[in-house]
Amino acid sequence: MPQKQPEKSFLSKNKITIFALSFILYFGFLMFDGVSNAEETVYCYECKAYFPISQAAAHKTEPIE
Description:
The chain is an alpha+beta fold. The chain is built from two helices and two strands, in the order ααββ. The protein has helices at about 10-15, 15-35, and strands spanning about 40-45, 50. A two-stranded antiparallel sheet has the order 1-2. The radius of gyration is 26 Å and the shape is rod-shaped.
């Protein structure tokens, strides 16, 4: 009488799928969080860089003439 082979566990059968799904969900959340918490920016013509609008008073936001 042949012996039954033990069945593989759910985790061992699907470890790559679980890893890929976790990876996609994690980075999807990071991208969503970065976009949803993004603050409007203004360009400083003196520094030649973008800054959050809350710091606009400390920077020159009009072109230098």
